[in-house]
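so im writing up the methods section and need the Putative cytochrome P450 6a13 record in one place, dumping it here so i stop losing it
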Amino acid sequence: MRIERECSRDYRVPGTELTLPAGTLVAMPVITMHRDPDYFPDPMRFDPDRFLPEEKEKRHPCVYMPFGSGPRNCIAQRFALFEIKVALACVLRDCRLETAPATPPAPLRLEPTAFLSTPADPVRVRVVPRTDRPASGGSRPAAEAPTESVPASRPTESDPAPRPATTAQ
Ligand code: HEM
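--- predicted struct ---
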């Protein structure tokens, strides 16, 4: 995923000899910042504490911007985050997700030609019914038998084709 902005005026990049003329389209590959160890030590480690308020205060707000930034950022950021949490809660209420022999090993390989961050291989996981939830815990009964491994996510033919490179020369 990259975020693009067009220069509205000539802009000298601080600390360099580079001047971007007005009209230049600048593409920012945000994943490179999200995985930059200068900002996120051991970036591939799952560490939710990185997002504690005191940790976020230590870095520039534009270092992590999965929904973009500024007046043209994603209009659905709150909706998308809420939707993801509801979907996870619905699944995890009834099931545990475990790795299986078919689960690709970490680190996840991404499809280099996809516009969005898309796994290069199907991420197959084992879906195991939870036995530890109280019987009255929800309106739906827990599943009774493990289901087959299913791809949690896979590249689709409908993924948009990559756009031409637009990075400033
Ligand atoms: C996890 C889910 C999502 C992610 C990570 C995401 C990410 C993004 C990003 C990076 C941008 C560009 C922001 C920028 O240039 O600064 C964007 C723009 C946008 N997104 Fe999302 N988005 C998500 C879900 C959604 C959903 C569910 C909707 C609509 C229901 C939506 C509607 C839009 C719209 C309309 C824009 C263009 C805003 C503008 O140009 O002013 N997004 N999104």
